[in-house]
Amino acid sequence: MPVSRVVTVNLGAVQIQPSEFLLYTLSAGVGSPLWAFGCIEGSKLASTDFSQVPHEWQLGGARPSAPELRHVLLDRGESSPDRYVLDLQFGGTATYKLRVVKQPGNQLIQDISYESHINTDSFAETLRVTLVKDEK
Amino acid sequence: MKKLSVLLCLAILPHALYAQMGACRNSPDLDAFVQCRVQSRAFDVAAMNNKIQDFANQSEPLSLVENSTSLVDSTAASDIASVSTTLSALSSKSRTPNSTDVSTTFSAYGIYAMLRQTSPLDPGLFVRKTALRGLSITYADSFPSDEGATADQGSRTYGAKYLIHAGRDLSSPANAGKRDRIIAVLQNQIRPYAQGVEEIADYLFQKLEPGPKTAAARDSFERKLADRNFFPSMLAKLDESDFRKIDSIIDRIVPSQLDLENASTAVAKEVLHASQWSAGFSAKISKGNGTNTYRSEFIHDKPFAAWLKETLNIGWDFQNAQKPGAKNRQVARLALQTETPLNGHSGKTPRIPISLTAAGEGDWGTNGTPIYKAQLKLKVTIFPGVDLPLVGSYVNRTTNVPRADLKGQLNISFDFAKIVKGVKKPA
Predict the structure, then answer these.
(1) DSSP for A15-38?
(2) CA B15: distance to chain centroid?
(3) What is the 8-class DSSP label of residue A78?
(4) Are A4 and A121 in contact (CB under 8 A)?
(5) Does the model's pTM come out above 0.95?
(6) Which of residues 78-117 of A touch B (CB under 8 A)?
(7) H or E element: which one contains B304?
């Protein structure tokens, strides 16, 4: 039985300016979420970096938009797209819900739910991110 | 042998692959497609259908309760609360007086969640409060029911149990190392996966997107790859040589997928077959002038295989006589139980699981001869968390009469954590 994945919104690719960022929110069902997040350059974050659910982090932007927020800087410069991967494993919990919102502007980029009751299942969700020049 | 099966699977996979291609062609978007192909090309792990719904979560009465249907105590209790009752009307006549027993157990976690007025199945709370989930408190009331029996022949039983080593709870600190092993292989997969998906998307863009190959067109194409209305029709335009090219890219992801599946399978097996230890204390206090019994015990349980689960109790009882002339007793106690499922051998959880339990107990103490007990139990789980154990017990001598005794009993028990998990789909 494969992972059941319900896509409400998935734009697949997003362009962000240096002053913008993506806010990732990953909620999980009962148990221990097990995941890693990174890009072509390598792994950036993992569930072990968080003590409380939902796990929230910021991708891009010059500085974290809230003091306690985990901040991942974009690895690549302007007009050089990178592919970001969220690799989910279902051994510790049966469900995940991912929301990626572009800020400021509150634009929903990804809103996807996952469910699997098989301990060995995994699913990797990707998003192509390109840094573009600030319009200002 | 395992290596041989992996090689065999990898050799067979290219042929099996095209049979599975139909399913992957129905993928709604690029990520689902790549995942489907990666999993098809990685060797097929044995599916483990059972989430961690542990057999050791005791919902039957404590072994010390007057007419308990269990000779042993398990290492854990319900994650939230459980209630069980043994009705005297459903017990056979024997030399041991019948009673109706009602037993209630709360986990400290369940009480904590109630006081905080929050759902005990709130994921954040559940993970953070592993220690509270390990502590459980039980109260049981026993009402004598034989003709001529008086209320003061009953007893009250109080118990507390703490799970010292929660080997089968993946959230437990005892399993931090196992969680880290999965995270490490997930982290190793990020880079090849991101590169692979990017290359596949580039290939599809070059092959399928008409017009100038600009950055803007590439970004717009990426949105089509994530669009379930577009992606399947795009896949339909590919021929076998395209799939071979895509597979050559996917083959670079496969080693990290194999590592992930191997690590996940190994951790799942280790967790499912891990030992648990707990310590328990219970006290049965007579409502009249019957003997009070205080029990201290260490409890161990371990599933050796899917068909054999073991529970061991090693402990000490102090029996405090209340009647004039009666003597106190110090009793060493050893009880062992094995449980085997009678259905569900295909690996799929049956709709109504049935298991057979065999247990034995030996009590050796001062001021009395040894007592030996044996028990056979057929447990029918009519709904997740609702068990009907049908029990036949033998004892070589009862406490009151120095003669052997046989007894049949039926109990019903409710584990509210399992019931809620059974009724409600995970959030």
Answers:
(1) EE-TT-EEEEEEEE-SS--EEEEE
(2) 37
(3) B
(4) no
(5) no
(6) 79, 81-85, 87, 89, 91-95, 115, 117
(7) strand B292-305
